[in-house]
Amino acid sequence: MTKSFKRNKTKSHHPFQYKPFSPKNPTTLIRCSSVSNLSTPKVEKAIEEEDLQFEEEELEFEEEEKPLNEIWKEIQGSNNWEGLLDPMNSHLRREIIRYGEFAQACYDSFDFDPHSKYCGTCKYQGAHFFERLHMANHGYQISRYLYATSDINLPNFFQKSRLSSVWSTHANWMGYIAVATDEEEVKRLGRRDIVVAWRGTVTYLEWIYDLKDILCSAKFTDDPSIKIELGFYDLYTKKEDSCTYCSFSAREQVLAEIKRLLEYYDGEEISITFTGHSLGAALAIISAYDVAELGLNLTNDVDSTRNETEIPITVYSFAGPRVGNLKFKERCDELGVKVLRVINVHDKVPTVPGILANEKLQFQKYLEDATNFPWSYAHVGVELALDHKHSPFLKDTKDFGCAHNLEALLHLVDGYHGKDKRFVLAMKRDIALVNKCCDFLKSEYGVPPHWRQDENKGMVRNSDGKWVLPERPRLEAHRPEDTAHHLKKILKRATTTNGSPQLGAI
Predict the structure, then answer these.
(1) Is 33 a catalytic residue?
(2) Which superkingdom (predicted)?
């Protein structure tokens, strides 16, 4: 069983930059909270009929399982998910969907309307983020928002307003860091969980067509043979000194905040989980590798004579591309970074970059070592390959975006029980969510495509009766002095451990 710890209540630094909120029902936690109210009688009838047929079958893989808090390390990939994917473990299914919803929240809260002066930012204040997304009872609280600069070598990323007056000319909101704060949720999880969620591109697939496919040395280590794709590296490491939001790179923001949270919750059982979809999945793997390479997840265990213990690092990757070369993959494995990649077999994004040379090539290692082949890439981790043609709710379409859609992937996870097993919705997740931002459901279910949008596209009536786009409270940027303080600690640790700094752009 997981040990319980008491946190020092006298600590001077509160772990959150944002004012805490109080869930209406703190003891009632929603496990899959992205619930719409668009269910139609046809949808409900179809699921009821499916349930009736499902109950008639003997399903030996739905046996009674131990509580999550007893097996959470296995669910987080300590054994590389061996025996948990086929048949699908019910705890793992719930966790995949839960972390997928954390990634989906990045899309649902992002303002990508070019007619808005807030284009490129998050719609909601951190204190109300999960509440506005109907995820308040998830048991997590925003710790920090993450930003990246437009000065990067990656096409079609920067979401910019067409208006002259904008919230920032350099920054784009890229995601968030959140922490499990509800003690009932911490008890259920068996540990204090830190989540780093990265946003993908909302221009969907344009960026992948223009990807330069150039590898560069990951300057997080002395080994120049460990390489990652240049555009991903730039997005993660570039900064803009003149911008309040990007005076620290996305990398520096992540490292400093994780360092701060680990100090605040020192002595507790902790996990660090990274999640993201598409481009966000690439950033999730890079940042997880970075944290492990720097040894931020190594901590002194007060119960074992100050020996260093590893805080588990897990990545739930959804429809992600390849990130780095074979040496990068091998180093992630060596550092114990656990990656579960959830893909749709009809999605083309996970097949790039690295079409010419990838992990499926028998002689890839020789190709990299002997010839220094510049376009050799390899996926990291364990793959969960799903097929949208197995779902009776989805129509046959040639729309590339549908096969890549995150909500569609979560729908497939809900219905997946193992290879050659019948597709049945185990968690009864609302199928209307599939059409949130695409047109993938069969027409007989009566769910309109692309249905999610702000009421009246955010316009409200003022006191004069005129329709206007209301002003939003300015989002808080990171505290420069606090970020610099924790980065200095990381630099000191890296220098002490390795004899020389290993922080690249920091």
Answers:
(1) no
(2) Eukaryota
Say what the pTM is: 0.89
161 a catalytic residue: no
Marked catalytic residue, from 404, 411, 478, 486: 404
Report the alpha-carbon distance of residue 353 to residue 42 in Å, rounded: 41
Is 404 an active-site residue?
yes
Q: Of the listed 150, 278, 287, 317, which one is catalytic?
A: 278
C-alpha–C-alpha distance, residues 374 and 150, integer Å: 26
Domain extent listing, the chain: 41-454
- Which CATH number is 41-454's, of 3.40.640.10, 3.40.50.970, 3.40.50.1820, 3.60.15.10? 3.40.50.1820
Which residues lie across from 192 on neighbouring strands? Answer: 270
Residue that is written with structure tokens 């004069």 in the block: 464
3-state DSSP call for residue 339?
Answer: strand
State the catalytic residue, choosing from 108, 347, 414, 430: 347
- The pLDDT tens digits of the residues spanning 115-158 come to 888 999 999 999 999 999 999 989 999 999 999 998 787 777 78
Ranges of beta strands (E only) in 413-478 are 460-461, 467-468
**Contact partners, residue 351, CB within 8 Å, separation at least 6:** none
